[in-house]
Amino acid sequence: MATVTTTAFELSGADGRPLRGDVRTAETGRDRPAVIICHGFKGFKDWGFFPHVALRLARAGMTAVSFNFSGSGIGPDGQTFSEPDRFGHTTFSNDLHDIDTVMAQCRAGDLVDGLARPTRTGLLGHSRGGGTSTLYSAEHHEVSALVTWAAISTVHRWEEDVVERWRRDGKTDIVNSRTGEVLPMYLDMLHDMEQNAGRLDIEAAASTVRCPWLIVHGDADETVDVAEGRRLYAAADPNVSSIEIVEAGSHTFGAQHPWAGSTKELDRAMDVTVEWFVSQLL
Length: 282
Known about the structure:
- By secondary structure, the chain is an alpha/beta fold.
- The protein has one domain (5-157, 202-281): Rossmann fold (3-Layer(aba) Sandwich), CATH 3.40.50.1820.
- The chain has 9 helices and 10 strands.
- The protein has helices spanning 50-59, 84-88, 92-107, 128-139, 160-169, 187-195, 202-206, 226-235, 264-281, and strands spanning 5-12, 18-25, 34-38, 63-67, 121-126, 145-149, 171-175, 182-186, 213-218, 241-246.
- β9, α8 and β10 form a beta-alpha-beta unit.
- α3 packs across α4 (128-139).
- It is globular.
């Protein structure tokens, strides 16, 4: 089995905020495709299954690039929301900017020393990261393959009474159910959704994705209902899209953080994902 190396990088993300990530690859100097991995809301690059998915992709012959969105709020330790103000000002548009920054540096071969330019590039996004990966792929047809896990089909995740209080108070509180932390979210997100409604329409974007796209969703997803995955599939071009419904799969396919080992549902999601990228990129 090939030895995989992990190399850290840091870029300037949206509004100049730090964008920290890792490159996992078996051979930095050899031409190979790259897959950029996008975490979701309240997620981060080292949450639970992400390092293991990256390792699987690297062992399969690809360069795996994972990063924390500049608005994630995760600090330099990579594990804690020690920069809550950055979380408070996060937006979907900033996430798209961050993906573009990572993609451009990756394609130029400038993420880490000695890393060759990728032959092709793919995107893997979970939850909110799946929605933004869909939006990005619709805008950037140079993306060669897309896989979304438990992806949101709309940016509108809040009830109207919450939005009214949010607008009145200038912020809304987001509770991290794992740690109990309360994170602020200011009006940036709300304004972004209102001012860029057309650009951020995920279902509309789904119809213009041109690269091969695998939609993976658990039928027991407690956070993003499987109906959202089905809506994305219904909107997508049937000539390029496929859907995999994972039986008994939760939002994280049974995975936990800290990592407590894989599950049958996660193994299925990882297997079909690696097979998809191998078939489309290698």
